[in-house]
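Revision sheet: structure tokens.
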Amino acid sequence: MKITAEKLRAALASAVLYRNIISDGPLFRLTELLDLCDMHTGYDALKIERYCSFVSALYTAGCDLGEYLWDALRSADNTYVRNFAAGREIPQVMKKCFVRELEIFSEISRITSSELKKMVGVSADLPDYDTTEQDFTKSIPALLENSHKLGYGVYARYGMFRVTQSGKLSPVLSPDPITLASLTGYEEERRKVLDNTKALLRGLPAANVLLCGDAGTGKSSTVKAVANELRDEGVRLIELRKEQLPMLPDIMGEIADNPLKFILFIDDLSFACDDDGFGALKAILEGSAAAKTSNAVIYATSNRRHIVKETFSSREGDEVHRRDTMEEMMSLSARFGLSITFTKPNKQLYLRIVHALAESFGIEIDDSLDIRAEAFALAKGGRSARVASQFIDNLISIGG
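Predicted:
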């Protein structure tokens, strides 16, 4: 038996776990339309307006009602989903509510545009939408069973995140798509980062990692490429700035019960001796009870081996225990379980990187290319992976 407008309106109104889905977007427009289902006369124009408003919202979301519902449900974050992912006991009444709502959304996915127009009493000539029938009672539980790899909520849709000024996690809508296969050189250094991250995935002891060394050698690219490589296995990357380090305990608390594994990425890390973030990072690296979580590691990049900026004047203070203080600052880098050094490439490695990039863009590789690449590096102040990339970009922009 086909669902009626009145029953559909009541079903949407009774949503509990997935109530946020009907508070905005296409389903909110649909509920506005269904509110008019008992008003048979005098509301034709308003019905048309609300039907078209629903279709317009659906077009913005991709035009397919079933696919929209799938995307909305798989990226939903609610009490049931969080408890399931964390392995907590779920009350039977909540389980029944969960199944019931999935049945409702499955039924909605089967409603074609022609059926909806008949249901609410508007002209068949109005715009149509597509729909792909779904059985969410099977697909959503299967998704949750694999939440340690696929994620839930916003983590099911995105792989990289930033921290907002208020300390909230915000997805990176256009993340760097870089892959390990696209990087040339530093294979041993990247292998160490990759192996450490795989250990995290397997629940084995994984180290916090400091990637230090010369600028432009691919330290940040390595971290992002590893995160992309292992996304489908359950790795997510959260990037935060140095001044956001005091937020680390709260971020750790937010992800502590999440079955995914997280790389907390701090790029270009360095401290002055009085930086507020120094103590926060030190507490995390030392495994303080307030900050530690087993599903996250810190990966930081720095052009400085010792991270803390030190001046000659800082050595001349009047503090009684000045020597202890200086040693504490200088040893911060030693608190990372694994330090990996990226040095400037020699000529052979630099040209190997140039050749790999040139090949990927269909640029002819000959002796003149090497000569021009070396001249470009000299003008830039030295060889690096970044300089090699800039050289190829320059060739492309001037047409070879």
